[in-house]
Amino acid sequence: MRVEAYGTVDELNSTLGFARSICTNKEIHDWTETIQRTLFRVGSALATPPESKKSPPSVLTEDVDMLTNLVHQIEATEGILSDWSLPGAHTESAAFEVARTVCRRAERNAVRLANSGVEFKPEILSYLNRLSDVIWLFGRLIEVKAGVDARLRSGDTAGPKWSRAWK
After folding, report:
1. Calpha distance 8→3 (Å, rounded)
2. What is the average pLDDT value for the chain, to the nearest integer?
3. CATH architecture of 2-49+56-146
4. CA distance 132 to 106
């Protein structure tokens, strides 16, 4: 289970690397690189067994807060979609959609690991959960900037209906 958890985080990091490599939005490109660096700490923390003499790298509340702030910042963008979107409306946003699904799998694997009794910092679960929201919003921001309509339901209006951040 441990190998599955940190292996999926590694897969997420690579998937985000691909999305970043085709992303033309400098802000999202830079945010993604920062997230990838943090994911190395997440993967290492999950890979480090409790009996290890080396303490695992920490994922901090500040890392989760950075993602929460990103959620609020992106949600404040004029025209940002807050409802379901149809993946594949734009090449760059589609790459982030794939990364988002890998992130959700990484979160599920980390939850399974925690439920099996393996202890690790709870911030890891919070980080992965919030990260999937951020990645989803990256896709929406790309679509807004490109003028692409990816609404799943016709007649849906853009604008926040609820926040992806609970703070």
Report:
1. 8
2. 89
3. Up-down Bundle (1.20)
4. 10
